[in-house]
Write a structure and sequence with these properties.
Layout (H helix, E strand, L loop, with lengths): L4 E10 L6 E5 L13 E2 L6 E2 L1 E7 L2 E6 L5 H6 L4 E5 L13 H4 L3 E4 L4 E10 L4 E6 L6 E5 L7 E3 L4 E4 L7
């Protein structure tokens, strides 16, 4: 992924038969996805002018000017929607875009490498860092709280963690 773009949503398929789409927003305020339009595909080859129509289960019914039929909407299923980083709001001190955390090295408070952030997950309660262990395909799930992750140094490419016993 390009560093000047952030994934803000994804197309989940057609909604109805008139070219409307189901869109899932990854924004803190889900409706804000519309304000970042035009959105682009990951490679930047396509631009999407998104208009939200109404909330539906797990997202929004939306219209994209370039899509007129159900078949065109279905063909876009799974396409991730990216906004230019300069369109996004500035973050407070302890807030981070998930895209900025992926790939960072995770070390414990003594400096021992624990792994690299493979993904950031959220199943409702809080963000969880999926950390790939060094030299392995195994991962560990690390709660992303200030008590467990006291330091995030994006410029330095690392996260300092004080994980509870048994996670690693």
């Amino acid at each position: 992924m390009n560093d000047d773009k952030v994934c803000v949503g994804a197309i989940a398929g057609a909604y109805g038969v008139r070219g409307e789409l189901r869109v899932k927003s990854f924004c803190a305020v889900p409706e804000n996805i519309e304000s970042y339009s035009p959105l682009s595909s990951e490679d930047g080859a396509r631009a999407f002018h998104l208009a939200l129509l109404r909330p539906i289960k797990n997202g929004f019914a939306a219209r994209i000017a370039e899509v007129a039929t159900k078949e065109e909407a279905d063909a876009l299923k799974g396409v991730q929607l990216f906004a230019s980083r300069d369109q996004l709001p500035d973050l407070t001190e302890d807030e981070y875009y998930h895209a900025d955390l992926i790939g960072l090295t995770v070390v414990d408070t003594g400096g021992t490498e624990l792994g690299r952030v493979k993904a950031v997950q959220n199943h409702g309660a809080q963000d969880i860092l999926e950390v790939q262990l060094p030299g392995s395909s195994e991962t560990a799930l690390l709660p992303f709280t200030l008590a467990i992750v006291p330091t995030v140094d994006i410029a330095g490419g690392r996260i300092v963690a004080d994980p509870p016993e048994g996670i690693f």
